[in-house]
Amino acid sequence: MAVFGISGHSDVYDDLRSVGCCKRCCLRYMGERTPEAYQDVDEWVTKKGLEDISSDDPKSKQMKCNPCVVCMGLLQGINTEDTVKKIVTYVNAKGYDSKNFSCAVSIPIAFQLRAYSLWFYLVDKFPLLFPNVDEQQENVITTIKVWKWTLCPLIAKEIGKDFDSGATCDFSVAIGVHYPDDEEECSCLLQMHEEIFNERKNHKRKYHGSLFTRKSVESILNSTDKDHFKKYFSTPPPIPTSFISYNDVSCSHNSIYFAGCYNKFSRSLSQTPWVIEGERRMESSVQEIICGSIEKACLADGSKFVSSGREDVDVRMLGRGRPFACEVLNPRKVKFSPEEIQILEAKINCCTEDVAIRHLQIIPKEDLHHLKAGEEAKRKRYSALCMSYDKVSLESLENLESIHEVVLCQKTPIRVLHRRPLAVRNRTVYSMKATPLDDIHGFENKSLFKLDIVVQAGTYIKEFVHGDFGRTKPNLGLLLGGVNIDILALDVEEIMLDWPPPTQIAVK
């Protein structure tokens, strides 16, 4: 409840000014909740009859010389133009095209000590107006909120963006505030709560090496008895040794997400960068070809690639392609028209003949679940060029088409045991069809055939074909009467996942 309107409020204002509070901090502790009050504080205190700024008031002169005892100059309006200019210059230089922004202000921990000190002082000095010692957080407007009410409209005007006070804004400007004696002032906490801080000292790893954190100090002070607090920190708080300074400004934008489907036409291209013991095994990858162009278009810091499964280096991805998503990290450009996205898609497709994408689009983060939803339940269709070292009859090949819903028992393949744990997985082969091929030069004494197969996602096709030394049962050789089969080439023909939705605009 605001103190305004209650008898004695002028006394509270005068007293706060006498102990070294700036005008805005006076209003904060008197419960003023009108943003306009802080934006033109001189006019407001005059209008309320709290102060006559036209008079030669010694209190005002004193406050121009000393930092406020609570905000240490953050809300005093000193060098406001320089502060706004510094922030605006930085933000404009970074070139973010977001239409709105939010601000995150990081203040020294000493602010918390001083806030409690002044509150305890008021509780003792004006017990009728401040009867409940535990109501500081409910009644006092925070320093950061008032800072945003005061400076953010000025920043918004200069950078041409709308200020968004909500937590859902994607673009944030972070501002660091520095107080040189912060650590020294907070050292009183070591005596005030010796047991707690000795624990933090002795278990640095547990507390990540941080003796004082805003969260821990706030929690401790919130449960600190007023009289106990006053033994270790003066009330009201002393005049600060110096004004605060702005030591850091940074910008960040939440990730945006592109999705689409890709085809891979090469048998010597990995899906993701292939690096072993720090050495690249291949010059590029599907991820780098796609995400590199997207990163550049978004002026981003980096990206993360995720797809609906993956194919081996020597396996082509054909048909409608494999669904993928690219998380773009800290993008400067986030506004794309449908035509611009289609131009970006065409640009990626011109990079190489090995990869092509389609249906490129920006999606909300929530849609990423489609990539992993029903991961083991979805089906995939493959075609494999197979070779039998023994003659296989046409009848045996034709019989494969009548076999349905075969459950395989597959141990982790030998070829991936170095990076995956040994396990046994059951996977289903839903249908198969074998087509004999004419004799090919060099394979005259062997049976060649094309195998079309639909399987459960996660099935090791190569191991189903050649058996992996009996680690996959049944395997194709057993189903064909116990012959030795090998696989010469493998293609993914279809990922049975209708996502993302097709795009409609085509680039001419």
Automatic annotation (TrEMBL):
One Pfam assignment: Pus10_N_euk
Record bears the keyword DNA-binding: no
InterPro entries according to UniProt: PsdUridine_synth_cat_dom_sf, Pus10-like, Pus10-like_C, Pus10_N_euk
Annotated Pus10-like C-terminal domain residues: 257-495
Record-linked Gene3D superfamilies: 3.30.70.2510, 3.30.70.3190
Main EC class the enzyme belongs to: isomerase
Biological processes annotated in GO: tRNA pseudouridine synthesis
EC number: 5.4.99.25
Ranges of residues in domain Pus10 N-terminal eukaryotes: 68-251
Keywords, alphabetical: Isomerase, tRNA processing
Source superkingdom: Eukaryota
Entry's Gene Ontology molecular function annotations: RNA binding; tRNA pseudouridine(55) synthase activity
Keyword Transport: no
Recorded family membership: Belongs to the pseudouridine synthase Pus10 family.
Protein name per Swiss-Prot or TrEMBL: tRNA pseudouridine(55) synthase
The species this protein was found in: Gryllus longicercus
